[in-house]
Amino acid sequence: MTVQRYHFHCVGRGGDAVFDLTGRWVPRLRALGPQADRVAQAVMDGAPGTDWTDWLVDVHDARGRRVLVRAFVDVRTDR
Predict the structure, then answer these.
(1) Could you tell me the pTM of the whole model?
(2) Residue-level pLDDT at 78
């Protein structure tokens, strides 16, 4: 098993963004989706009442390559 660092940037319309400058260690690719959901949920919990319709979690590996995009509206909160 190879653990890699991924950056989970949250971007919205109008140039709004929350950048993950530190990154997070993720043990396997299939764990990226659940981690993206947790990141999105934490951002949404920090600003209740905000319209998150057009927001995305944009996940990049340590080399800056995009590996996953998840819409906030698709976040699974049952995990």
Answers:
(1) 0.89
(2) 62
